[in-house]
Every structure is written in structure tokens, then in C-alpha cells.
Design a protein that fits this description.
This is (rape) hypothetical protein. It comes from Brassica napus (Rape). By secondary structure, the protein is mostly helical. The chain has a domain of 34 residues. Helices cover 89% and strands 0% of the residues. The longest helix is centred in the middle third of the chain and has 23 residues. It is elongated, with a radius of gyration of 19 Å. The N and C termini lie far apart (54 Å).
Amino acid sequence: LILSSILAEFGFLVLIGLNKVPNIVIHLFHFVSRLNWCLADHFMMGYDFDFLEFV
């Protein structure tokens, strides 16, 4: 029970810290991660040349 309460408090502090991070940084991180997934999908499917042509 003590360990779980410590973990809960630590998670709460992490959430507070994340709320203090500017929203634009979070959006930028999500955008970059989404872009990485799109590039990975294109390279996996062999559409990398088509994708590069549109860029």
C-alpha cells in the first residue's frame, strides 16, 4: 500500500510537470512522432519515392 501511494504521488507530480510544459512543445512532439510513423509506413510499403516526389 505504501509503495502504491508513492507511485500515485509520483505520477501526480509528473502530470503537474507535464501541464507546465508549453502546449506547442507537446504539439510539436506529437507532430514529429506522427511524421515518423508516416515515413516508416511509406518506407515499409515501398512508397518512399512517390512520397518524396510530393515533398
